[in-house]
Amino acid sequence: MSDNTPWFEGIKFPMIHFSPEILREVRDKFVVKDEDTITVTYPKSGTNWLIEIVSLILSKGDPKWVQSVPNWDRSPWIESTGGYELVKGQKDPRVYTSHLPLHLFPKSFFSSKAKVMIYCIRNPRDALVSGYFFLSKINVTEKPETLQQYMEWFLQGNVIYGSWFEHVRGWLSMRDMENVLVLSYEDLIKDTRSTVEKICQFLGKKLKPEETDLVLKYSSFQFMKENEMSNFTLLPHAYTTEGFTLLRKGTVGDWKNHFTVAQAEAFDKIYQEKMAGYPPKLFPWE
Ligand code: A3P
């Protein structure tokens, strides 16, 4: 990503949606409450899917909320300028989202019993491919010209929200906390029902089987793709270009259709270096 995107504390943020003042305020002054439910991810790891699932769990499968309120209003991104205002105005219990790395997250979280934080990881190769197609069609930051170029930015951490490796290593250091649930996009795909049940249990929500069926139905790829409150088609047209879509493929392993052998090897080499010492069992793609 070229150097005209501003930095904040070592991370690039397109200031169209962010400001250093708000980012600083979120980190230093925002008070996380014990009743808050927070979804945290590295971008392109299934954030919006999780927002949909959490919304539907809270409404016991009733689709009215997800069909009438955009996802960014149901669970605003706390670090974005507009999202921060929305979160401050939310009634308790609040529900919000963040892509912030651990060191930029509200400090107050670490001393609260915030119920709860769900962190969702995804194979970085798939997050990379997903991000490449997403950013190629959106006008908020410099567009990558090729997958190779985006891979270089990604591996250097020279992308919005910084390095995948640092993000994941940071947040996984919190994985033993009682109020942190670590999930993966891969498990969500492989066994959506049991992952949704795990989330219900974590949130302390008891759903009847038929209510869980509704959560699964309305958060499915097809329903979300058609729901304009969830598929980002409500973004102002000036932000997007022809072919833009949030719900692109929704599969595991799409990177194999896009990486060359040389790219896969170069990626692996850096992955091995950066994730050395991490037990492979934490990562369903290994
Ligand atoms: P792909 O680009 O690989 O299709 P985020 O919400 O963090 O930006 O992540 C977007 C990715 O999640 C996209 O991946 C999108 O298709 C996928 N996704 C969103 N909703 C989904 C769903 N209901 N089922 C499966 N994948 C979903």
TrEMBL record:
Keywords: Cytoplasm, Lipid metabolism, Transferase. GO terms for cellular component: cytoplasm. Its EC number is 2.8.2.-. The keyword Lipid metabolism applies. GO terms for molecular function: sulfotransferase activity. This is Sulfotransferase. The gene is Std1. InterPro entries: P-loop_NTPase (IPR027417), Sulfotransferase_dom (IPR000863). It is found in: Cytoplasm.
